[in-house]
Amino acid sequence: MRKLICLALAALLMLSLVPALAEEITIAVVPKSLDNAIFLDAKTAAEEVGKELGVKIQWEGSTTSDAAQQVNVIESLIERQVNGILISCNDADALKDVIDRAVDAGIFVGIFDSDSPDSKRAFYCGTDNYAIGKLSAEYMMEFLPQGGKVAILTGVLGAPNLEMRITGFKETLAAANSPIEVLPVQTGQDDVQKSVEVVNQYTAANPDLAGWFFDGGWPYFADPDALTELAAFVEKGGKIVSIDTFHPMGQFIPLGMVDVLIGQDYFAMGRIGVETLYKLIKGEEADLGVTNDKVKNYIDTGYEVVTIKNYEEVWANKKPW
Amino acid sequence: MSKSNNFGAGVPGLFRKLRQASTFNIFMILLGMCLIMTFAAGNKFLSVSNITSVVRQFSFYAIMSIGMVLVILTGGIDLSVGSVFAFSGVISCMAIMRWGVPVIPSVLLGILAGAVFGLLNGLCITKLQLPPFIATLGTMSIARGLSYGITGGYPIGGLPDSFKFIGLGSILDIPTPIIWMILLALLFSVFLRFTVRGRWVYAIGGNEEAARISGVKVNQTKCLVYMFSGMMAAVAGIATAARLGVGQSTAGSGYEMDAIAGVIIGGASVSGGYGNIIGPIMGAAIMGVLRNGLVLLDVSAYWQQAVIGVVIIIAVSFDKLQHDRKSASISVSK
Amino acid sequence: MQELLQMHNIRKSFPGVQALRGVNLSIRAGEVHALIGENGAGKSTLMKILSGVYAMDEGEVFWEGKKVDIPSTSAATELGISIIYQELNQLPNMSVAENIFLGREKRARKIFLNSRETLSEARVFLDNVGLDVDARTLCKDLSIAQRQMVEIAKALSVNARLIVMDEPTSSLTDREITLLFGLINRLREHGVAVVFISHKLEEIFQISDRITVLRDGEYIGTIDTADSSEDLLIQMMVGRSLTGFYPKRAVPIGEVALEVEHLNAGRSVRDISFFVRSGEILGFAGLVGAGRSETMRAIFGVDPMESGRISVNGKMLSHHSPSDAIACGIGLVPEDRKLQGLILKMTVRENTTLASMEETRENGFVSRRREEQIAREYVKKLDIRTAGTEQKAANLSGGNQQKVVIAKWLATGSRVLILDSPTRGIDVGAKKEIHELMGELASRGVAIIMVSSELPEILGMCDRIIVMHEGSIRGEMPRSEATQEKIMEIILTSKKQAIPQVE
């Protein structure tokens, strides 16, 4: 009887090794959470490039943005011996150890969107969040040369990428001695409904408001009809600069309800991330981006800037959600 | 021995009756907050558009709190409302946009989805004897997962105006969500006060064993309240999807805590058997006015959470102290 | 003899209630002093003042002749006063030793628990009270009697000179009561004074040296037990003499109302068959744990039954749940009125109509007016003493609470009423009222089943008596043939039969 069980176990073991023996390359792509629609472009891109290269792409993640759950996901990927992992970290420090363990286990790890700079990851491809905050400030100064009050809407407080955008925005204004006055930061807690209500109430409560900086595009996931106060605001000449260029947000440009959208290129993140990992796994030479005193192996995926002038051209190439 | 109900005898009758009403303290807290806001923010707060906006905002939470208070009255808890909120909204939007179902049947389908989840909760609790916390934690995950599954995570927009009317329109200048809240509050107040089942809800929360021995159909009634809770979450979810013009699988995450907070601030007992419908609505209103106040007074988002916490603790302890004083003067048994 | 404690002219009022109006109490060292009075007479309030829970409005307290102030419970403990409440304040998941030293934990190097010393000292006190359990046993694994002993051990561990026992015998079996009394006698020999609060007069005669009677917050008097009699005490307690303690009426007995055949439900209900006729009062006698309550719960559908037939007025009950039983006209006044009978958070009105909600409907909705009408009708009929129908059930005295439970069943028009220990923990006056009520219901043709552990009550009230032991019926006799000795004999002999089976 025991022999039989041993045999069965051995057979199972063999079976489980089969995928590895088949030499099919598997790359797991791990977003911050499955419930965040902004990663969907990265998913599409990763799957496309996977098909082109003949790589199996596994879209895996926790259901909520939680570092501890993400650690579990990576541990199970180490267990399953995937060839490469492309991950967006919920927390730079919390993920460091498990990323190092994956690298020690012979898995190539690349990071997109949100970095863990001290880990042994091979590269980081993503947006320079400080730079897009800076660019937003430059647009705002152009729109409001005489200055005025500008409000900021953010999402979850303390998220590193959002904080970097706010810092870039504020520091740029300060460095240029701009007459723009920045009001205390408001939050919609990453929730569309809460963001819409905060924007409406805050706009109504501050009739002398001259501009809004949304460091993420939450209000624009709602229908234009829901943003009544914002419509009145732009009618009076208020200016709005918003981060993100997801498909549903496009309709607000021709309506005049946003002046500039600055988008991270999740498509590029997914594509470049998978391509670079593929090259590393194959042992080919790969471009790992720049290394300087601030960051090592950083591939800047750039950003896109959309205004009424290039809106139609850009949106024509976007896949509808 | 127990002739002690004549305290406050000198006060005029109506006022005394009002003071004895269980929601009086909560109402005073709400009124006090509104007064403070009026002094601090003036017309910004009192403007028709701001008040409308505040009421519309909290009406979604209040609708969920109505369902939640029924569950809490029986001594249970429903953690699945935030997820059911998303699931029902998504189902209605999917039905309209993807499956070609007309608006009204789509809305009914969404509410039915909420009822099904509620029934599932009820059956897990009564038949499988699971603690409500565990059962609804499970369905919370199931409903959220199904929402992601059927939408693939994408929001569903482009909804017809007739659907958006549910959350965005107004009747006689009153925004529709406020009307739903008032109608549902009336409906469930009547349910609790004037129906046999409503009385049974209190009885189960007061003493389940005694209720059962008195012929109360405990399991049926529990299933019913969880269904109501699911349906209220569905109504709030669908109305929110209509208000925003988009159905999202991510909607309502963490809203179960807002709904529970509304009920508790509204003076209901967490252990069951004590509470009413008006309390949670006032609880939700307090949260709404508070959030609005922090926005109007330009408090930085980084400090808002802390302020909300402090105000909730002050409000609830004020109510509890008043309540204790009242019950101490009534129950001098033995 | 030296007066250990003297309380003079104690007054205490709560908003709307004058709870104590000049009460005196004097306790001598080494005496057992019974404190009696109906519920609401002020016994608990007086004891709470003595133990520092309440502050008195007026009055003086002398301890060993010196005037003292008792501002807190710890002050009372320091003087040497300990109270053992009816609901024991113990942590069920802690050991006996830990409970004894709760709040006064033995320490090692100031901060660490010293469990060895805790155990060894606890053993000394457990020996003193004669409780033979391991000090490491968790409290939840002890019987109520044993837990009481632990409380007494705890009192001794703080050098208590006066121990107040609030209805200590209410949930004890006869054997346990004997043990407790033995312990009380030993305490008396060691000079410890005991204040003994009880409703059971026979116990008071058995154990006490002197008796103080309170009524409606007033001090009625203190007498030597040797000089008192049952009639005298009752007269002092209720302010009038109660004649004919068990008011059994002769009532014509009618058709069979409830018939139970071969009922089985769990280990404590084995093959039970009996019937009760309208107008008849059927008593179920037996020891605590004989399976009587379980039988009643199974008949009423609270607990599931395995097999058997139950028929009401010749019609068999098919589906079985409390609501079906109610629909057939059965009512159950359960054993524990606070946990099973009433919803304490609800008002008198709501409790009264709970089982007959359908009757209160007008046009489909519950009519508050109808409810109040029904509640007021029964408050009047049963003489329920309450501030009004909107009073919370929790605020009523035990007897009045029990009347509300009975009112609930009368409102459903029950034709078969099962009363499980209806007078347990109820004062003498209310007890008599409930007995009168039973007689009245029987005369109106209601069939009544009464479970009681008090043999005089069974003998006094019932037309027919069934004796249960270890889950089955061991005997049955009509009123005319029943005596206390006969019932005890049935129980004791069946015990003898049972022993060989166990071995």
For the structure shown, list the relevant keywords.
heterotrimer; A: 321 residues; alpha/beta; Rossmann fold; seven-stranded mixed sheet; C: 503 residues; 2 domains; six-stranded mixed sheet; disordered C terminus
Word description of this protein:
The complex is a heterotrimer of chains A (321), B (334) and C (503). Chain A has 321 residues and is α/β, with parallel strands linked by helices. Chain A has 2 domains: 10-126 and 266-288, Response regulator (Rossmann fold, 3-Layer(aba) Sandwich), CATH 3.40.50.2300; 129-264 and 306-316, Rossmann fold (3-Layer(aba) Sandwich), CATH 3.40.50.2300. Chain A contains 10 helices and 13 strands. Chain A is elongated. The N and C termini of chain A lie far apart (56 Å). Chain B has one domain: ABC transporter involved in vitamin B12 uptake, BtuC. The longest helix of chain B is centred in the C-terminal third of the chain and has 30 residues, at 301-330. The model of chain B is unreliable at 1-11 and 329-334 (pLDDT under 50). Chain C is globular. The longest helix of chain C has 19 residues, at 484-502. Mean pLDDT of chain C is 86; it is low at 496-503. In chain C, a hairpin with a 2-residue loop joins strand 16 and strand 17 (315-316). The chains are: A alpha/beta (321), B mainly alpha (334), C alpha/beta (503). Chain B binds chain C through residues 1-7, 190, 193-196, 198-200, 202-203, 206-207, 209-217, 273-274, 328-334, and chain C through 14-17, 19, 39-40, 43-45, 216, 300, 302, 322-323, 325-326, 332, 334, 339-346, 350, 354-355, 357-358, 361, 365-366, 385-388, 391-392, 394-397, 408, 412.
Topology:
The complex is a heterotrimer of chains A (321), B (334) and C (503).
Chain A (H helix, E strand, L loop, with lengths): L1 H20 L4 E5 L9 H14 L2 E4 L7 H13 L4 E4 L4 H13 L3 E5 L10 E4 L2 H15 L4 E7 L5 H16 L4 E3 L3 E2 L4 H14 L3 E6 L13 H8 L3 E5 L16 E5 L1 H17 L15 E3 L2 E4 L4 H6 L5
Parallel strand pairs in A: 1-2, 1-3, 3-4, 4-5, 5-12, 6-7, 6-8, 6-9, 9-10, 10-11
Antiparallel strand pairs in A: 11-13
Helix pairs in contact in A: 2-9, 3-4, 5-6, 7-8
Chain B lengths: L12 H8 L3 H18 L1 H4 L1 H26 L7 H17 L5 H24 L5 H20 L9 H8 L1 E2 L2 E2 H19 L1 H11 L1 H6 L4 H27 L10 H11 L12 H19 L4 H30 L4
Antiparallel strand pairs in B: 1-2
Chain C lengths: L2 E12 L2 E12 L3 E5 L6 H8 L7 E6 L2 E3 L4 H7 L1 E4 L11 H5 L6 E2 L3 E2 L1 H15 L14 H14 L4 E5 L7 H16 L3 E5 L3 H7 L2 E6 L2 E7 L5 H9 L17 E9 L7 E6 L3 E5 L6 H9 L6 E6 L2 E2 L5 H6 L2 E4 L3 H5 L6 H6 L7 E2 L2 E2 L1 H14 L16 H14 L4 E5 L7 H16 L3 E5 L3 H7 L2 E6 L2 E7 L5 H19 L1
Parallel strand pairs in C: 3-10, 3-11, 6-9, 9-10, 15-22, 15-23, 18-21, 21-22
Antiparallel strand pairs in C: 1-2, 1-4, 4-5, 7-8, 11-12, 13-14, 13-16, 16-17, 19-20, 23-24
Helix pairs in contact in C: 4-5, 13-14
